[in-house]
Design goal:
By secondary structure, the protein is an all-alpha fold. Helix content is 80%, strand content 0%. The chain contains twelve helices and no strands. The longest helix is centred in the middle third of the chain and has 32 residues. The chain is globular.
């Protein structure tokens, strides 16, 4: 029965249109960590934001990290397509707002909106592929989609430099708007999804909120360590908030009926090793993409 439902879902979806949309969407979100590197000196000089330039990178990555598990859990309840479309719209609107930002603080705020949209796009692309392809083809499709990250790492700085030279820094963000509309069109007409049964299990709001605080405070602690003037008072306060939120998150996930991150998964040694390896490799990749062009 499950196989019949799966095949029906695949047959109703235009796989070519969906895969093109997924690839472009992955490229759009991943290139935002690289395309801005070559444009940043111009942006900083125009908006007078040298003292807070690191937040242009950090805010995008922060809101992406915070929203990714939340969107992933919501997609299990309401479906992949609605969450993907919402994320795409938020990302495109955030890109448009970044392009018209009049000062560095507005740009950082709008980068946060961009990241909130990217947090929906990044995980949902993988789950859509998992839904549409059988196991023996799934790994090949995911690997194909992951090439968008490699392409963005290579072409992002070049595209950013070209846009700044030929147009202006605003188009580093504006370029995402027509791409977003194109992807939205492909997904709207290409992806057909079966209606999901509504779950009566309560949403893990405590886990979502505590996880968000954990990630925000961790980033702020790292930002303080990276600054020249380390203020011990702020560091102690943030450390207390971080540890407290981490404990709240841990206990809330153990008690939650439908936890945002099931901790029992980490009892699987293979899963834990894969997660730690992915964390290390992703950190190296993002660090390389961010600082190498500079």
């Amino acid at each position: 029965m499950e196989e019949d439902v799966f095949l029906t879902k695949v047959n109703k979806s235009n796989l070519s249109l969906v895969m093109i949309a997924i690839f472009i969407a992955t490229f759009m979100t991943s290139v935002e960590t690289t395309i801005i590197t070559t444009a940043l000196p111009t942006i900083i000089s125009k908006l007078n934001g040298l003292s807070v330039q690191s937040w242009v990178f950090a805010m995008y990555l922060l809101t992406t990290s915070v929203s990714t598990p939340i969107y992933g859990k919501l997609s299990d309840r309401v479906g992949r397509k609605p969450i993907f479309v919402v994320g795409l719209l938020v990302f495109s609107i955030g890109s448009l707002l970044c392009g018209i930002a009049s000062n560095i603080y507005l740009l950082i705020f709008f980068r946060a909106i961009q990241g909130i949209g990217a947090g929906a796009i990044m995980p949902i692309t993988f789950t859509i592929i998992a839904d549409l392809f059988e196991y023996d083809r799934r790994s090949n499709m995911i690997a194909l989609n992951n090439t968008a990250w490699g392409i963005s790492a290579l072409l992002g700085p070049l595209i950013g430099g070209f846009i700044v030279d030929k147009l202006n820094w605003h188009w580093v963000f504006f370029i995402n708007v027509p791409l977003g509309i194109f992807v939205l069109t492909l997904v709207t007409f290409g992806l057909k999804e079966n209606k999901r049964e509504q779950s009566n299990e309560p949403i893990d709001f405590k886990g979502m909120f505590s996880l968000s605080i954990v990630l925000v405070t961790l980033l702020m602690i790292l930002q303080i360590f990276g600054s020249n003037n380390i203020k011990n008072v702020y560091l102690i306060i943030l450390g207390i908030i971080f540890v407290s939120s981490l404990f709240i998150f841990f206990f809330s996930e153990k008690q939650a009926i439908d936890p945002i991150i099931p901790l029992k998964l980490f009892k699987n040694q293979l899963f834990t090793i894969q997660i730690l390896t992915a964390l290390l490799l992703s950190g190296i990749q993002i660090g390389f993409q961010t600082y190498f062009p500079i």
